[in-house]
Design goal:
Layout (H helix, E strand, L loop, with lengths): L4 E2 L4 H8 L4 E8 L2 E2 L2 E2 L2 E8 L2 E3 L3 H14 L9 E11 L2 E11 L7 E10 L1
Parallel strand pairs: 1-6
Antiparallel strand pairs: 2-5, 2-7, 3-4, 5-6, 7-8, 8-9
């Protein structure tokens, strides 16, 4: 992954970039207590090719729609939730082809899912 961050200001610009670069997301929701942290929080990143996408009003809206559609929580009490998604453009809609799993830190997954969902517009 590149250290460079790119900013996407609108859907047209995103579609243009998606013609040549893969668009995907990765996330982890850390549980309340772990071996190297205290406090639950969500960490997400969206990438176009090797470039991380930075904040903009459009992209903040897109991120909100993504987390809502996939029901990615902001916090987790006991389980670490790890997921990723390839984001595809079909019929002018963004579709997340995603998978995730939830586990006690360093243990086998207790829950998992994979599916495809339209999240934008």
């Amino acid at each position: 992954m590149s250290e460079e961050i790119i900013i996407i200001h609108n859907f047209s610009a995103l579609k243009e970039k998606m013609e040549t670069l893969n668009f995907y997301a990765e996330w982890t929701v850390y549980c309340e207590f772990g071996p190297e942290w205290i406090g639950s929080y969500r960490k997400m990143k969206f990438l176009l090719g090797e470039y991380e996408i930075g904040a903009s009003p459009f992209f903040n809206e897109l991120k909100e729609k993504f987390t809502t559609a996939l029901k990615i929580p902001e916090t987790s009490k006991d389980l670490v939730i790890t997921g990723d998604a390839d984001i595809l453009l079909k019929q002018n809609q963004l579709i997340a082809d995603y998978s995730w799993y939830a586990a006690v830190p360093y243990d086998e997954p207790e829950a998992a899912d994979n599916d495809e969902i339209v999240f934008y517009p």
